[in-house]
Amino acid sequence: MACRTGLNRTRFAPSPTGPLHLGHAFAALTAAKLAHPGEFLLRIEDIDQSRCRPEYEALIVEDLHWLGLDWPQPVMRQSERLSAYQAALDRLAALGLIYPCRCRRADIRAALSAPQEGAEPVIGPDGPVYPGTCRHRNMAEMGPDDAIRLNAARAFDYLDLEEIVFLDENIAPGLPHRLAAQDFIFGVGDVVLARRGMGTSYHLAVVVDDAAQGITLVTRGKDLLDSTWIHVLLQKLLELPTPRYHHHRLIRDEHGKRLAKRDDARALKLYRDDGVSAAEIRQLLGF
């Protein structure tokens, strides 16, 4: 899928695990604004079928239309793209860059709590950086309850890169963001590319889907800035284009806490039920 030359294609990709709140509205409106006069897409991130609900997907569509947004059909759903994610994993496996991991969270916590000269665990985008317990395993040993991790050190060796780079149009526009290979290996680590029972992870799916939809500008909150390093590395490994990025501000409550789906008091549906107009929501959010 390709956008008209010179025009942005953006996307809003919510998970149907709860109602949209003000933070989602800000993210969707930002993506739509930065797409104009190009193309704004909706994508449903529903790989976690244990938590996703059709009624929440219907509410997402209703809320976005109420905000005045529209998008081309059909809508891409991650649950329908498992073969594409498997193809990406197969490519990485053929390169020897992934391995199966049987560790549970308790195992990781135990490994990280072992005495290491008083060193505190390094925290990366997905939490404590994985200590590499299963790194010696190969994909031939893959079990039904294993996750799949990227071997970050091997990935950089394969690419023969000393750093990775991306451009952000909102944070220091025009200046490339750079991360050294060693900082990635020790500060991000061997991230999960396929979770147990899902066939993929957020990191892998978003990279494969952005390329498939020809996304030229990825808009997302600043809380995902560190995850972008993972995505740029995967784009290079899979020989996919790296889009430009726009990491926007987050909508916070009166205590400065980032809004989450558990904040039902700020769900868009409740604003609608109380008679608040879409124009008022847009004005509240600075549009």
Low-confidence stretches: none
Number of helices: 10
- The helix content is 25-40%
Principal-axis shape equals globular
N-to-C span = 29 Å
Architecture overview:
With 287 residues, the chain is an alpha/beta fold. The chain has helices at 22-35, 54-66, 82-94, 105-113, 152-159, 181-187, 202-212, 225-237, 268-273, 278-284; strands spanning 9-12, 39-44, 76-77, 98-101, 123-124, 127-128, 147-150, 163-167, 176-180, 192-194, 217-221, 244-248. The protein has a three-stranded parallel β-sheet with strand order 1-2-3, with helices on one face. The chain has a three-stranded antiparallel β-sheet with strand order 4-7-10. The longest helix is centred in the first third of the chain and has 14 residues, at 22-35. The protein starts with 8 loop residues before the first strand and ends with a helix.
List keywords for this structure.
10 helices; three-stranded parallel beta sheet; alpha/beta; 287 residues
Secondary structure layout plus pairing:
Blueprint: E1 9-12, H1 22-35, E2 39-44, H2 54-66, E3 76-77, H3 82-94, E4 98-101, H4 105-113, E5 123-124, E6 127-128, E7 147-150, H5 152-159, E8 163-167, E9 176-180, H6 181-187, E10 192-194, H7 202-212, E11 217-221, H8 225-237, E12 244-248, H9 268-273, H10 278-284
Parallel strand pairs: 1-2, 2-3, 11-12
Antiparallel strand pairs: 4-7, 5-6, 7-10, 8-9
Helix pairs in contact: 7-8
